Amino acid sequence: MIEKIAYRGQQAAYMGIVMHMYMQQGLGALMQTLQSDNVDSDKAIQQVRDVFAMSTKSLDQVGRTGTFHHIVRRQVAMTDTGLYEIDEARDLSDLPLSADGVFGSDFEKFLKTRKEKNKALDDLLPDISVKKSYLEGLVTVEEEKPQDTLDDKVRKVKFPKIHIPVGGRLTHFLQEWEQITQDQWVLSIIKDGYKLEFLQKPPFQGIKKTVVSTKNLDILNLEINSLLEKGAIEKVPVKERMTGFYITLFVL
Question: Which of 16, 188, 222, 240 is placed for a possible disulfide with 61 were both Cys, Cβ 3.0 to 4.6 Å?
Answer without folding.
Answer: 16
